[in-house]
Amino acid sequence: MRNFFLRLVHDSCKLLVVSCWLFLCASVSLCLLVFCSIPAYAEKGDAVAGKEVFEKRCRQCHGDTGEGNGRVADKVYPPPRNFTWGLFKYKTSPMDQPPRDEDLLRTINDGFGEASMPPWRDIMTEKEKRDVIAYEKNFSDIFETEKPPEEIDYGEEILYSEQSAIKGKELFKKAGCPECHGENGKGDGIKKLKDVWGTREWPRNLTKPWTYNGGNKPKNIFARITVGIPGTQMPSFADKNSTKYFTEEERWHIVNYVRSLADETKRVKKEEEDKPLKAKYINGEIPMDVHADEWKGAPFKAIKLFPQDQTKEKFFKPTNDGIKWRVLFNDKEIAFLLEWDDRTKSVPGDAEAEKLSEGEVFEDAVAIQFPTAILPKIPIKEQLPSIEHGDMEFGVNIWYWSSGTTLSPQMTKVKYSYGIKSERVEPEIKAGLSGKGEYAGGIWKVILKRGLKTSNPKDDLQFETDKLIPIAFGNWDGSNGGKGNKHTATPWDWLILEKG
Ligand code: HEC
Ligand code: HEC
Fold first, then answer.
1. Strand 488-489, strand 306-307: pairing
2. Half-sphere exposure of 451 toward its Cβ, with a 13 Å CA cutoff?
3. Residue 421 falls within a domain, yes or no?
4. 378-415 pLDDT, tens per residue?
5. Which of 8, 98, 283, 377 has the greatest number of CB atoms lying within 10 Å of its CB?
6. Looking at 199, 232, 260, which one is the last position of a domain?
């Protein structure tokens, strides 16, 4: 799968050439405008130079006029910010004050978690960052204040300890955080939320701090709980006039509880990305129970899901962002345990599911893709089937599991495909595959099991030991419009079966 954001950065360089003459024409008139409106405390940056930076790096999303309507705006989710509203989400100044320059700088440096906005820390010079901040502030009059905005009061930081996290857990409940973030912080709350821009909001999955947009250092989390996230449903817990007021000390305990929720096993490890996952060999039967001990000792790997953007019907608003997978095999069979965080159990026909769903509820689903043929010991890139369901030369097997409806049970099927548009896509045929899934606490766990060999070697992958096996995954969140081509998928990864 091509990396969408790298493409954006690349595209934006090309665009710069086209936009140079435009820039020259416009800059004379804009110089005047810009110089008139720079507030006193922003003199650090040069807004005129900042315009150039903005046009090179920011305008494809934020738009020429800063209204969030750039060329690729409809491909990022949530949409790029309209700066003319003067509403900023991740800041360390009190609710009623504009963000501090430091906040804008942090956003530019770190981007947003793993989503929408790229990090510019190593791409832009410090001067370029200061300049673009000065320019960005001209889009709204909220920055025309006498004094620079203040920084919130952090009180005395309480360092992490288990005791503090336990206190924080109680306060987390008392504050009503689970209503939105779920009992275990998976973002699987019971409320359907919209932000002031009218966009559907999915509360952050607090067990994945690497996806936080406002940073995941203790002070960043303290600031979020203190200020809230303006424009969204995430409230401030430092408003003395509100029943939801918590002291600085209490907020630090909550911070420590939130930190304790982190599940590092679901984070993609850069250093392991290119290494194959080793399936675990066991002597006995392979259990179809997701809680069985056999799974606990099996090596696992986390892989990132990307929005499917290759077909005509693209999918740019993903919720589920990764799959953790592990594999067991014995002399007869092989089984995969796929685990992913999903805020909603999507059961078509179920009233509760319908309440939370964004549009019609479809089934949740997951798929594994393998090449059709057995591969040589070291497969070369050119021999891999296209990630998009294979191609005319190299076909794929797709093992597909879906979660069922109120009327029909869970279902597993196999599909043989030679490319999405290929007419050689055959109907699903049962190939001795069995599947079983379980949803609890914001997590799906699904097992898919098949014989190592089948009676249909022309179409089915025949598993062999000591060979690198390409493998990829697809995922559907049925409460977020996930159906057919509207899904997320991973690039090719590698699996190896070793008995020793
Ligand atoms: C690929 C698209 C993209 C590019 C390029 C981009 N942004 Fe953004 N930006 C976004 C999105 C999307 C949001 C809103 C995210 C959200 O609401 O959660 C955003 C929000 C922001 C915010 C608001 C932060 C807040 O606290 O609310 C600032 C500031 C910002 N961008 C600055 C910049 C600057 C400066 C550049 C260029 C150096 C830039 N962006 C380039 C997509 C982009
Ligand atoms: C009414 C719903 C609601 C409640 C209650 C709520 N949150 Fe949130 N929270 C959200 C939403 C929605 C977001 C994501 C907003 C965004 O960034 O666009 C969020 C985001 C967050 C983030 C991620 C910030 C980031 O940088 O990305 C943290 C941490 C967080 N909430 C903690 C808490 C804690 C702790 C509590 C209780 C003290 C709480 N929330 C209560 C809705 C809520």
1. antiparallel
2. 9
3. yes
4. 666 667 888 888 888 888 999 999 999 999 999 998 88
5. 98
6. 260
